[in-house]
From TrEMBL:
<keyword id="KW-0560">Oxidoreductase</keyword>
<dbReference type="GO" id="GO:0005975">
    <property type="term" value="P:carbohydrate metabolic process"/>
</dbReference>
<dbReference type="InterPro" id="IPR036291">
    <property type="entry name" value="NAD(P)-bd_dom_sf"/>
</dbReference>
<protein>
    <submittedName>
        <fullName>Gluconate 5-dehydrogenase</fullName>
    </submittedName>
</protein>
<dbReference type="InterPro" id="IPR020904">
    <property type="entry name" value="Sc_DH/Rdtase_CS"/>
</dbReference>
<dbReference type="InterPro" id="IPR002347">
    <property type="entry name" value="SDR_fam"/>
</dbReference>
<dbReference type="GO" id="GO:0016616">
    <property type="term" value="F:oxidoreductase activity, acting on the CH-OH group of donors, NAD or NADP as acceptor"/>
</dbReference>
<dbReference type="Pfam" id="PF13561">
    <property type="entry name" value="adh_short_C2"/>
</dbReference>
<comment type="similarity">
    <text>Belongs to the short-chain dehydrogenases/reductases (SDR) family.</text>
</comment>
Length: 256
């Protein structure tokens, strides 16, 4: 039991690991022994996360890539492999949101959000999972979904659709990669103080969220670490694939 959540000797790639939620989960993986590659568009932010991991005694390095660019992802993968020899854990945590009303939605904005939240994850998995399979690594892919993926939220139409699609991708790839020793799961966070939802948290909306969250509070980013470490561990979650784990304060169990 003492080694159930031990990730020593593992390398984790955290796509979007420079975001609030991605950084917290990456730090959780590092705290349990994983060597972590922080991948993001903003290299300065990625380096800040690396510094925090190093200060807590972990090993990490920053890499720059945008999930909308296959070329950038392939370069990051090559650079990470040169640094660590490969990877065992892929954490997909990029995200983009918008409050544009449905009838005002332009397809350029639709494409932009879909490219990051859905297409970008598909391409990331093509690049990184393929190499995991080639190296015959037993591993874990963890996608970060949203409560809006199962019950669409008002004011975030495209985001909700993209995350519903991500759940489907998670299940499909779980079936696709199971015989290769790679598990694919998703975490469904509730409401956390992340960049993409701050702009829609008016006083009225916050009250509505609290009324729909039995625990009556927002989540703390560090509260996602347990689920991430569990899914990353090939000992703790060795028979878990194709599932979604809610970390939402009971939001998904609330009706009226």
């Amino acid at each position: 039991m003492n080694t159930l959540f031990d990730l020593s000797g593992k390398t984790a790639v955290a796509i979007g690991g420079n975001s609030v939620l991605g950084a917290s989960m990456a730090k959780g993986l590092a705290a349990h022994g994983a060597k972590v590659a922080i991948v993001g568009r903003n290299l300065d932010k990625a380096n800040e996360v690396v510094k925090e991991i190093q200060e807590m005694g972990g090993e990490a390095k920053a890499f720059q890539a945008d999930v909308v660019s296959r070329k950038a992802l392939e370069q990051a993968a090559a650079d990470i492999e040169a640094w660590s020899g490969g990877w065992d854990i892929l954490l997909n945590a990029p995200g983009k949101n918008s409050t544009t009303p449905f009838f005002d939605l332009e397809m350029d904005e639709w494409d932009d959000i879909m490219n990051v939240n859905l297409k970008g994850i598909v391409v990331t998995c093509q690049v990184f999972a393929k190499r995991m399979i080639e190296q015959k690594r037993v591993g874990s892919i963890i996608n970060i979904s949203s409560v809006s993926s199962t019950t669409p939220l008002s004011k975030v139409f495209t985001y909700s659709v993209s995350k519903a699609g991500l759940n489907s991708v998670t299940q499909f790839l779980a079936r696709e990669f199971a015989t290769e020793g790679i598990r694919v799961n998703a975490i469904i966070p509730g409401f956390f103080p992340a960049e993409q939802n701050r702009k829609i948290l008016s006083e009225e909306r916050t009250e509505s969220i609290m009324n729909h969250t039995p625990m009556r509070r927002f989540g703390d980013p560090d509260e996602l670490q347990g689920a991430a470490v569990f899914l990353a561990s090939d000992k703790a979650s060795s028979f878990v694939t194709g599932t979604t784990i809610r970390v939402d304060g009971g939001f998904g169990s609330m009706t009226i």
